[in-house]
Amino acid sequence: MSGTTHSKGVLILSGYLGETFAQKFPLSLTASICFEQLYSGVDGDSASSTELYAILSSLSGIPINQSIAVTGSVNQKGKIQPIGGVNEKIEGFFQVCKMRGLNGKHGVIIPVQNKRNLNLSDEVLGAVKSGKFHIYAIDSIEEGIEILTGVPAGQKDKSGNFPAGSVNYLVSEKLKEYAKLAASLNNK
């Protein structure tokens, strides 16, 4: 039920995972993302970064803060790309949070390139100024996963290893387990 642009966005996720994690071992992973209770088509790649955060959370075992909404497409290098409708997306999520009660933990992650497109209501601007709502403008998946989990993403060292305890370390360790399991199954 997905359109070509959404399908392309999903393929980009495989490219990112392969480049980031599968340089020393094969990528042995199949991931499926389903929008439950949606009976019409899905298109666009504005949710590709969100989909990647969900995969990273699942593989690392680190939960995502559900008080923060996310928009932005991602390229194969993990760079966040601009999207359309940024004001409407922020305003819509703000209204949902307002109805449920703003508590200072709510916010939205947007591509840094979309900062220049912001034209928000005085109500949203007031909530941001008072610290009741947050807008995070980011450039990379690593920045976003740190905001969403509160755990450092972790950068590769010269040997290609991630720091222990980082999100990327935990993802890498899980993918190594999958690669070993796949190899042992193929040898039987």
SSE topology:
Elements: H1 4-21, H2 48-60, E1 68-70, E2 73-74, E3 80-81, H3 86-100, E4 106-111, H4 122-129, E5 133-138, H5 141-149, H6 167-186
Parallel strand pairs: 1-4, 4-5
Antiparallel strand pairs: 2-3
How would you describe the overall organization of this protein?
It is a single chain. This protein has a single domain, classed as Ribosomal Protein S5, domain 2. By secondary structure, it is mainly α. It has six helices and five strands. Helix 1 (4-21) packs across helix 2 and helix 2 (48-60) packs across helix 5. It has helices at residues 4-21, 48-60, 86-100, 122-129, 141-149, 167-186, and strands at 68-70, 73-74, 80-81, 106-111, 133-138. The strands form two sheets. It has a three-stranded parallel β-sheet with strand order 1-4-5, with helices on both faces. Strand 4, helix 4 (122-129) and strand 5 (133-138) form a beta-alpha-beta unit. The model has no long low-confidence stretch (mean pLDDT 87). Helices cover 44% and strands 10% of the residues.
Question: What descriptive keywords fit this protein?
Answer:
mainly alpha, Ribosomal Protein S5, domain 2, single chain
CATH names the topology as Ribosomal Protein S5, domain 2
CATH-scheme architecture? 2-Layer Sandwich
CATH class division: Alpha Beta
* Largest sheet descriptor: 3 strands, parallel
**Morphology call:** elongated
Number of helices: 6
Looking at the chains present, what oligomeric state does this protein adopt?
single chain
What is the helix/strand order? HHEEEHEHEHH
Gyration radius (Cα, Å) is 18 Å
Work out the helicity level.
Answer: 40-55%
Mean pLDDT: 87
- Which structural class do you get from the secondary structure elements? mainly alpha
Strand order of the largest sheet: 1-4-5
Unreliable stretches? none
